[in-house]
Amino acid sequence: MTWQECRDTSLQKLFQCYNGPDEDEATLRYLAAMPAAAKRDGHPARRTFQAIRIYINGELDGLSQAVTDMFDCLDKGGRVSIITFHSLEDRIVKQAFAPLAKGCICPRNFPVCVCGRVPQAKVLKAVAPSEAETAENPRSRSARLRTAEKL
């Protein structure tokens, strides 16, 4: 597949065209070039480089399991707090906390709970950076702090 063909295909094809760390950055920039509308939120290739970095480094592979393992190590009343720096991480952490906070899973039409399941955690509201912090450090705008307390 030529570089021109890769440029015209999806991000998945871009990963297939990527030849490893020896790849020329200028070539990747060429592949990741986006229309002018995408330039509103920083460099047009920023998200593509982020996706390539996450994919190559396997940054999200063990996150869900790590959250569960950390929670299992807590004593009653202990808290685990995780700072996420982009939406993919945030979604994984949020989805890992959700089953811990879920109680009864019986159908609503059951008059009495038969599963006996109780919530294991209280999930606190996610904390985003304040406007003052974002003004001082613009890179913090996507960060979120998520906390779960063991019951």
Biggest β-sheet strands, sense, barrel = 3 strands, antiparallel
> N-to-C SSE series?
HHHHHEHEHE
Overall mean pLDDT score? 78
**Widest beta sheet: strand line-up:** 1-3-2
Morphology call: elongated
Note the gap between the termini. Answer: 55 Å
In percent, how much strand structure appears in the residues? 5-15%
Tally of DSSP β-strands: 3
Helix content: 40-55%
Number of helices: 7
In terms of structural class, how would the helical and strand content be classed?
Answer: alpha+beta
- Residue stretches low in confidence (pLDDT < 50, at least 5 long) are 1-8
Compute the CA-based radius of gyration. 21 Å
Keywords:
151 residues; alpha+beta; three-stranded antiparallel beta sheet
In short:
The protein has 151 residues and is an alpha+beta fold. The chain has helices at residues 3-7, 11-17, 25-32, 46-57, 63-72, 87-101, 131-136, and strands spanning 79-84, 121-123, 144-150.
Give an account of the 3D structure.
With 151 residues, the protein is α+β, with helices and mostly antiparallel strands. The protein contains 7 helices and 3 strands. Strands 1-3-2 form a 3-stranded antiparallel sheet, covered by helices on one side. It is elongated, with a radius of gyration of 21 Å. The N and C termini lie far apart (55 Å). The model is unreliable at 1-8 (pLDDT under 50).
